[in-house]
Amino acid sequence: MPAQAGLRSLRKLGCERGHDELVARSGRRPRYLRSAELIAMDLTSFAQTAFAGISNGALYALLGLGFSLVIRSTGLINFAQGDLMMVGAILTGALCRFGLPVAVSAPLAIAATTVLSAGFYWFAIRPAGGATMAQVVLLTIGFAICLRGVVTMAWGSDPMMVPSFTGEMPLNVGGVSILPQELWLIGVLVVITLATGFFFRHTVMGLALRAGATNPLGASFVGIDPRVLGLLAFAASGFLGAVAGAVWSPISFAQVDVGLGVALKGFTAAILGGLHSNYGPILGGIVLALIESFSAGYISSAYMDSITFGLMLLVLVLRPQGLLGTALSMTKEERPEEVLSTTARPTGFTNRDIAMVAIIVVVLTGLGLTMNGTWLTSGIFAGIMAIVVMGLVLLTGYGGQLSLGQGAFMMIGAYATGYLTVKLNWPSYAAMLIGVVLAATVAFVLGRLIFVLRGLYLSMASFGLLMISLTFAREWTNITGGPSGLPGIRPLAIGGFVFTSDRANYFLIAAVSLAALIFCLSLARSRLGRALLAIRSNEPAARACGVDVTRHKLRVFAVSAALASIAGSLYGHFLGFVNPLPFGIDATIAQLTALTAGGFLSLSGSYVGSAIVIALPLVITKIAGTTSSQFSAGVQYVAFGLLLIGVVHTQTSGVFVRAGALVRGLVRPGAGAPKIATGKEPT
Amino acid sequence: MAVRHRMMVPILAAAMLAAASSASEAQSEFKVGFVLSQIGPLAELAKTYLDGAEVGVAMVNDTGGIGGLKVRLIVCDAQGQEPQAVLCAKKLINDDKVNMMIGATGTPQTMALIPTVESAGVPLFGMGAGRVIWEPVKKWVFKSFPSNDDQIPAELNYAKKKGWNRVALLTDNTSFGKDTVEMTREVVKKNGMELVAEESYAPSDTDITAQVTHVRAANPDVVLNLAGTIPLGILVAKKATQLGMKQPLVQGMNFVVENYPTMVPQAIDQSYFAGSKMMVDLPPSDPLYANITAFRKKYSEMRGASTKPNGNTITVPDILLMVQKVTQGMGAKVLDPEALRTAIESAHDIPELQGIWNLSPTNHGNSFAAGTVVLTNVKGEWKLAQ
Q1: What is the complex's ipTM, to 2 decimals?
Q2: Nearest chain B Cα distance for residue A331, angstroms
Q3: Do A484 and B111 touch (CB under 8 A)?
């Protein structure tokens, strides 16, 4: 190996030409060149990369800690975590711009954000006591969107510079360049880690929080009020978010869009380290950032997300309690789901089902014949979304499993259609079928690995799947066309008829969605539907009665994936173009919003929920008149967020269920009212 | 029957008279649909485009409009989402009956619009940097502004002139970034230079130390910091100076905005930018001199002397002024989409604001080389790089 040693010393001297000469003289092709270069990455670069990992890890750790505290005390994923960080950063920047020194503005911003978050819990989450987990998650999404809207209205979307606490001059430690602000970030994390340890071990509040997290019912018996725990957790979440924002933003910048992306990393960190352990999220954050830093530095930054989220899936499968979690924490009781009404479930279609389908046929046809222009196009998008949401009704409403990754299955359908019809010239139906089979298989395999567990694990795993799918869509350019997308998908054709016009597409999608509705209804009214509801209200009891829990959950997950894939294929055919962006976490949020608005157990409500989500921006635009300023964009955000919060609040199971109950109440006086109270009659 | 027909005439005439007011109103405008995303990562860019567009419309209307018709801009917000961009295109074409379209923000959204405008037959100036928009040629779609095929040659030719032959590239993993990588490889090869490092990052990354460290280890003569969005470009510039890199940092045109130099003051002395001639004082002999001077005058009349236009401000005005030139004397025939497209395709040696327009039925991607230069920023002032 003299050649390699020589190479290394030449690299050290920074002599690149000599490096080439050496390769030429040693007479060997640079087959080993890459590995030689890897070795040649000297110690300083290694140390620099490691240090960057640790300081960025501190950011992930602070957010991961916020996620973990909220999950432990309330069982919720707080989707506003990232936006609380953003608010902390923006407020710090804005107060500095106002003329205050950063030593004053940072604490002010942190205090304000903490109060904001606690206030949100007290006035928005606490009163929605009977809501299910998925619904409360929706509340936090609404809150996040409102925060983004208000910030956009007040400060626009330009990046804002935040001054460093103690100067910008980098320190040089053995060749490693370190910003003072990075030391602040790491220092803050150390202090918070110590404080967290003390809090959980030695304070009444901390012990109460742990007790409540381990056994909420037992804790409430000994006088621990879960509402106080929730308030505390949300205050801590706001505090940690704002601290992260205020301390980290001087290293980069504060901007309205920065929250969600960072929060996803923090969430991953918490899963990696262990959601239910005290120090897990901190370790998880550092590990995650180190992996990112080294994979970007030594492997490729292109597949960085795949590596990190693949690792997350691996941890979920092999060590679901996280790196630091103890097996004990797995026995924690889930947040109790609402008690379902105990009336016997019908087998097969009821008269009401048939009437409902007939009404939907009439309404869809009527709309299709009368709508024009934008409304007709919106109808198409709403129909496509409704198909996805029907799958979610089965999975989340009936199965009690919250999926954050239906976008991945839509992508499978859309790209299968795009690639097979455009590049290989396959017929549309064959491509669609391949998409369905592929999506169902992926769901089945993922589910097989995950469904031994309960609660939030499917959410996390499906989220990981979504992130990995997005990377592949971006990087696997031969198949997917990369980030620029895959153009040139022909409209769907059946026999000799080509669906080119909007109206033809509308009726096509209406027909497919009706078929999906009838299929889902028949599933919901079958043994599977009843078994799922049994599992959802009391899993151990259902298991004891001989219900094969895993098999049923798997089947419903595969069905929801297949439906999403069909929706993706139809989307591709209609738009004529597929790219990765529309399937990201924003799409997940839109689908969950539609699910909530339509009603968790209402398959027919999927239409209403999707229509609301698609039409809302149009309606707001119409009301607000022109949208020619950032201010009105902000207004739009706020309106959407408030609507989301409002929908969850005014009813616990969606407008459609409520309207149905009202109609039933009119037809049979007295029949509707108690059902609103228990709230959960499947329609 | 004959009698009936005869009676129909006055009735029809009356009806037409009644409708005349509204009909002539519809005919007296040349409607330009503008799809842009006012929320999302490109919102700040959209703001600048819109600001310039309003000035451009006023300029064109001052000088007789397009085909003698007043130009009206109809804006639709795509909210950073592809389906929403398609909805906008359909709304503008079907409901507002626009005669020409500009949009959307970024390559993916623009690609999403294309099937709609192609089937409706409305000329679209695509507001994305990706070459897929105009290559291969699509019947109704044109390039709007200087892109990678204008700025990267400008930057690398300048670097070659300076003797900076070892090039490193840092860009993002979006469609813009992919295009940047391809174009850089092409020009580096053509110029006989060497690409010693090529690194990418995700737009949501919060730390890019590993990538910058890699670039530093490759010891390049010049670093191309070509980010699609300004925040990530700031992150790269900050990190490069923190890691003690003294090499010239070359930024893309999208960074030539008023507040960029104030955001990374530590890197500004080693920063170069591809930029529009709009940013510097031109000699009167320059082919763009007259137009740019006229635009500056109108802009300061409308917006006051304190706000400064930049390379993105002039995009829409440039397109409108060019369309005004090529449709001169057509009158109301500009309302015929085929005639309008043919007129645009006939653009030949028309100097406007962003460069000189030369289009043909086989070339819809104008070269803006004539308007693209390399800039530096000295004490907040943009100067031609020496």
Answers
A1: 0.75
A2: 36
A3: yes
